[in-house]
Amino acid sequence: MGEEENVKPTIVIGHKNPDTDSICSAICYAQLKEALTGEKYVACRAGRINPETKYVLDTFGVEPPQRMDSLEPTVSDVQYRTVRGIKRTMSLKRAWKYMRDNALPTLAVLDDNNHLEGVLTQGDIARFYIEDQDANALAEAHTSYQNIVDVLGGTLVVGDPDGDFSQGKVVVAAANPDVMEDYINEHDLVILGNRYESQLCSIEMKAGCIVIGLDSKVSKTIQKLAREANCAIIATPLDTYTCSKLINQAVPVSHIMRKNRLITFRENDLVSEVKAVVSKKRIRYFPILNDSGQYVGMISQRNLLDMEKQKVILVDHNEKDQAAEGIRSTEIVEIIDHHRIDSVETNNPIYFRNQPLGCTATIVALMYQENQIAISPTIAGLLCSAILSDTLMFRSPTCTMLDDRMAKILAKTAGIDITAHAEAMFNAGAQLGERSPDELFHMDYKCFHAKTRSLAVAQITSVSGSELHALKSKMISYMTELLPSSGLDMMFLMMTNIIGESTELLFVGKRTEEIVAAAFGEPADEHSIVLSGVVSRKKQLMAPLMTAIEDFV
Asked: How far is CA 255 from CA 163, 190, 360, 502, 523, in A?
């Protein structure tokens, strides 16, 4: 058995705590890439879906993308060998042949429920033949007669086909019968030839089994006496030398397999953690188990070293701090975004499209048009919804004429009324009072860095100023309580009134009151400031805020 053919699809994913643009752009761009290349692209999301986005997906009958909070590769992402395991009763001969035919240095020994019982390596078999000269090995291993018959290419003439040889030693009867009596004991397995006297002597000495070689005919008298004495008879075409050389290959693998301190890994184990373990071991292959503890295959150090990195396309972000965990372990192949450019590092040249537009979905829609790929009503509805969301129905200063024009074209294709649809979207995202402070704060949440300071800036929007005002005190309390354990220096929350086109900015953290006052040129209260005309985090808030923070650091 070789390694599974497993061509990984490219992941298309937006930022953490995704908004409507992040989700819809990922879905639509994945479909565009599939149409252009014929290859597999999968839209994913790095967090839960907010109520507004859920409304949009439900409206157009689209399933949410797969959630993927971490892109850190796990064992399931590695092309490990799906090697079939063996049973503990299999003979060493059969196990060795299976290893040889399939170039497998290690086998998993499994029970009837596919759970791991032990591990067998070629080295284990070699050590058994080199080191174990004990004539009792066959009995100690409770070797089945079926295994012995198979190894010797013979026939069970007398005896229980399901029985086993579990007492005595292996004896080669090369002497006269009167001498044999001195070294054949009860229950022994005796290898002999076609001499009637030797066969009779072995039975009379209460041997447990006799192996008769050279294709010799077993007389009916010997068969009758053997049955009466409960002595099995195996007939084989091999000579006594070959029989004595091969017979230990009938030992079941359970006799020599390693059962204790086995090193195994689960499919969901991180590759980085697995590498740290295997690099310290002189073992070539390790069993892989699924969540139920069942065996699924073998992984080697070479599998880990040859692992192909997951290909990823980032949409609606390019800052690694905003990307899903583990982004550094992937291969970023494209970025489609409308935000400021961060210090992005890639191993190879990539396609990077960044335009100063109000929404990533506008860029995606342009790419459909440029490549002459028809936009379906469903795709049009998703793209239009994203534009309306990100531009706050064209009220945001980030909105351009192109965003406005594209949204109207898409609305016509989708068969929706822009005003009615936007109001329904915003209302779905409203009813903020029913949600916990934690849910509200992380609905649209991004982290940033300014010199040595780390900060989070969240935003909640509503068409109702009174609804936002009612949240003020509990959100300040929540942020104050959360900050010490968050690992952040400062927290900001934009409470944006879409209709009133204003934001009340809440803040907690050392010197934040001074920083906000300096950023916007007007005095601030202890934890808040009202910013008239400010609705955009990207264009109106972050630039003056980051400048002020850097001046105070």
From this structure: 17, 21, 64, 77, 82
Q: CB burial class (10 A; 0-12, 13-18, 19+) of residue 39?
A: exposed
What would the pLDDT profile of 29-57 be if each residue is shown by its tens digit? Answer: 999 999 999 999 999 999 999 889 999 99
Tally of CA atoms within 13 A in the half-sphere of 56 that contains its CB: 33
- Say if pTM beats, i.e. exceeds, 0.85: no
Please give the Cα distance from 241 to 135 (Å, whole number).
15
The Cα–Cα gap between 3 and 406 comes to 47
The one-letter code for the residue type at 8 is K
Residue range 372-392: average pLDDT? Answer: 96
Residue-wise pLDDT for 51-96, tens only, equals 899 999 999 999 999 999 889 888 888 878 888 899 999 999 999 9
Q: How far is CA 151 from the centre of its chain?
A: 42
Q: Which two tokens stand for residue 184?
A: 């054949």
Buried b (16+ CB within 10 A) or exposed e, 476-509: bebbeebbeeeebbbbbbbbbbbebebbbbbbbb
Q: How many CB atoms lie within 10 A of CB 196?
A: 13
- CB–CB of 259/100 below 8 Å? no
> Which two structure tokens, joined as six digits, stand for 309?
């990195």
Residues 6+ away with beta carbon under 8 Å from 186: 167, 168, 205, 206, 207, 208
